[in-house]
């Protein structure tokens, strides 16, 4: 596997900063820091238009513990180090997860239930940056949304609802509800055959009971395997070469602490196998506390895990998936405020 190339960058959100920092992906030097509207959460990079999108979900706080929902989508030109536009999605609010369909030039943004309707997904044209339509997912909190490689089906992980929503993207029709009892991160395998979703909504005040990853066959919509995990999982990610990654959140029972030194370290868990449905757990690595977001380099050689409690990003070498190795830790705390969250890997222009 190759190392990150010269000119590539890693974009990292500091949720409470509120900032986005652009790091050189080779030497990990911070090149640009941009101040954003309150509570930036997730990132999505459009390589064709060289634009980086960032959702601002709340006016302060986080899901379930906030002073109000935000409704903004910030558009950044990373090559110029500037904010191009701040899109107001009102009356939609609580935008969070994003999925890009580059072939059709569409950006999907998950939004919470509110004045505009039930929880759903807003669809934007990436050329004009105009909102085209809304897809209802019929759940209050569709926090993450992913699409298959063909851009035909979309899957929403729903924190509060006992199912994963399946929608047909061309028509916006809801075509399935896969029974999963509350869910967090979600990812589609590179071959499009399997969806992995973190089962159970994470409770940051107590350890989880029977946490797991659920594997769903995209052809049938059926759950084909359950991968037990030791702790609650929030982020889930599939690398380009088919390695499945998840971030376990360790909870110190009875502390009620989300941030700070008393919060236990997080863990990156790695599964690999001959096919997406046949993966087995092969390795782990210790990372910062409260891991929330995962991404990887285009070749799958490195994983990046943002830990909101520690406000760090763990850089993990995956040359041997059975021996994931933390090679660097990036500090993104701003003025002492914690909050490493959204990540995006930006290939060079």
TrEMBL record:
Determine if DNA-binding is one of this entry's keywords: yes
Q: Which InterPro entries match?
A: Host-pathogen_enzymatic-act, N2O_reductase_N, WD40/YVTN_repeat-like_dom_sf
Against SUPFAM superfamilies, the record matches this protein to: Nitrous oxide reductase, N-terminal domain (SSF50974)
Q: Which Gene3D superfamilies match?
A: YVTN repeat-like/Quinoprotein amine dehydrogenase
The keyword DNA-binding is assigned to this record: yes
Keywords linked to the UniProt accession: DNA-binding
| Gene Ontology molecular functions | DNA binding
Q: What is this protein called?
A: DNA-binding beta-propeller fold protein YncE
Organism for this UniProt entry: Amycolatopsis saalfeldensis
